[in-house]
Amino acid sequence: MAPIRRFRRLAVVVAVAALFAGLTGQPATAADTPTVTQLTLSGDQFKMTDTSYAAATNNLYTNYLTDHASLTDVITTNYTTNSSGATDSWLNLRSMRACSGNETEALPPVTTKVAWCWSSAHADDTTQHWYPQGLSTTGTADGGDGAIQGEHVAAVSWHYETLSGETSSGCKTDNLLKLTFIDRDTGKYRHVLLAEPTSTSSSASNFKFVTGHGGGIVWYANYIYVTDTAHGIRVFDINKLAKVDDYGSGVDTYGITGGRSSACGYPYVLPEVHYYQQSGTPTACDSDANAGTLDPDHLCYSWLSLDKTGGSPYKLVTGEWYGGVDGGRVVRYQLNPTSSSTYPGLLNMSGGKTVIQDAYAASRYRGLQGGMTWTDDQGVLNFAFHKGCGTQPGVYSHTWIGDTRAGTTCAAGGNWAAGPPQALSYWPKLDTTQVDELWGLTEGICWSPSDPRYDEHTPTSTLDACYGYNGSTTSSLRTVFAVGFTDPAVQDLH
Q: Where does the source fall among the domains of life (predicted)?
């Protein structure tokens, strides 16, 4: 990322002053305290160890998952039949589409460079089971021309949710994870199952699906980092993409059985190569942490982003979501460039532990569902956050070290997309063109009053994008968008 100047609001119009009440509902005096506070860590606090699955994945890739695939294969091959030869439209490449109707409320109220909604063909836009979470792109992965393997692609993580009265099992297990690869140039996309070898052995002969919230992902070079909320961060290698033997809408198996591989119906599988884990698990990663107290020794890995500014090393940035507690931590781990002689493209290690660059408390924020950092041309560390407000308009906040401004609240109507907004990711260049784009997504749906589970999701505020919705089917608030990163209409928001 090229150094970006720090944007500051030059004037505040009285008519909109109400929008700049405290983001977390704190009293006016809180505006004298910093928005973000640097932390002093001790010992091995927040450090992780690495369990390597590289040898296991190499063996699977060499001897069992031998139909190797490229990123191009995944985003361009259109299957019309399943592995048995029967017509199966579920396997077709799907297409992002223009957003319409209520969906436009899930787009930022600024000029957008990309504004996509998911395909309706197989209900990716309205499914009650799958929820999009993290986002990263080849623009982040490769700042040279924004391409990996010659392709311009956005990746999105999804997790599966069982509904009340349903059983969590097999390919319908709670928090089952998949990744979607979207071809920026065509809008075509395909889902891929994330997989973990069943052992770390170099003779590993099977794999299983991966579970987690998938709240954050980062694409760097051939690696895709995925958060595992209470434990740490998983790493998957797109150079190990493989096509499985059995695929189609009727396939509900996974792994290798009788010499044949399957991946919950999906044609492709993306194997894990590293799993970074903290020493224990947090006392709680839910809305109020542990009765309002954050675990001092363990993190909740809720979101991820990549910071290439401020000189070497690169930083893998992770942060915490707590819906009802201020001060979620933001920790930046050192990430080695691909040219590094040790751990190329992976987290830097010392004494068997990951190396932390620095850490901060988002002192006056809560409900952060995405974030990123960058060092501007004045040497000041900047932060951007996505705050979710349910299906009400969310909040985009740009702040920096030393900032003491109060921020926008959900109660005041937010300043950003409804949905709620999730990840943040920077796309600097598209081929030789400097585009300076800020990417994000929203995850929500509006439930139909005719749905038997509507009472669990009834909107109560007139600010809610779903308020008054009375359609007979679920309505989408799921978007993928890009706005101008240097647009003052974006960066003047707080």
A: Bacteria
